[in-house]
């Protein structure tokens, strides 16, 4: 029997879905997260986030960072039971600092600072 376009497209979509990595569930944040760029190529920019997880990095379509030499994935912000956390990507350890420290994960609070090269991002949380 001859394969029709709808059948072929459905088969290709199912094949792609089976091969694609599983993604985390999208969840509303417990507070509005504002990422305020204080220094670097995006100085003066502000991103407002209300759901996640969200990933920032040089190749991120969602939250692209223009810092020269920034890793493809720098950090993510997600909701956990105890609050919002920032998680530094494995390949970005040592290149991304949270409040001047090399950390894997940290709970977010207003006034926190994320540094990537010359880029400085200040966190503001709004209820």
Key features of this structure:
5-stranded mixed β-sheet, 127 residues, mainly beta, elongated
Task: List strands and helices in order, with pairings.
Blueprint: H1 5-19, E1 27-39, E2 46-52, E3 54-57, E4 63-64, E5 75-80, E6 83-88, E7 96-98, E8 105-107, E9 113-116, E10 119-126
Parallel strand pairs: 3-4
Antiparallel strand pairs: 1-2, 1-10, 3-5, 5-6, 6-8, 7-9, 9-10
Distance between the termini: 59 Å
Shape: elongated
Considering DSSP H and I runs of 4 or more, what fraction of the residues is helical?
10-25%
Q: H/E order of the elements?
A: HEEEEEEEEEE
Strand order of the largest sheet: 2-1-10-9-7
Mean pLDDT: 92
- Main sheet attributes: strand count, strand direction, barrel closure: 5 strands, antiparallel
Q: What percent strand?
A: 35-45%
Task: Give a count of the beta strands, DSSP E runs of length 2 or more.
Answer: 10
Alpha-beta content class? mainly beta
- Tally of separate helices: 1
Q: Report the uncertain regions.
A: none
What would you say this structure looks like, in words?
- The chain has one helix spanning 5-19, and strands at residues 27-39, 46-52, 54-57, 63-64, 75-80, 83-88, 96-98, 105-107, 113-116, 119-126.
- The chain has 127 residues and is mostly beta strands.
- The longest helix is centred in the first third of the chain and has 15 residues, at 5-19.
- The protein is elongated.
- The N and C termini lie far apart (59 Å).
């Amino acid at each position: 029997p001859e394969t029709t376009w709808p059948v072929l497209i459905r088969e290709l979509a199912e094949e792609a879905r089976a091969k694609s990595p599983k993604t985390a569930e999208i969840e509303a944040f417990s507070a509005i997260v504002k990422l305020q760029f204080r220094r670097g190529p995006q100085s003066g920019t502000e991103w407002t986030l209300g759901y996640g997880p969200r990933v920032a990095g040089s190749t991120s379509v969602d939250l692209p960072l223009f810092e020269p030499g920034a890793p493809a994935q720098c950090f993510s912000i997600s909701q956990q039971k105890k609050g919002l956390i920032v998680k530094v990507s494995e390949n970005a350890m040592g290149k991304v600092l949270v409040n001047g420290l090399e950390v894997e994960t940290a709970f977010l609070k207003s006034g926190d600072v994320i540094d990537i090269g010359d880029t400085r991002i200040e966190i503001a949380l709004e209820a």
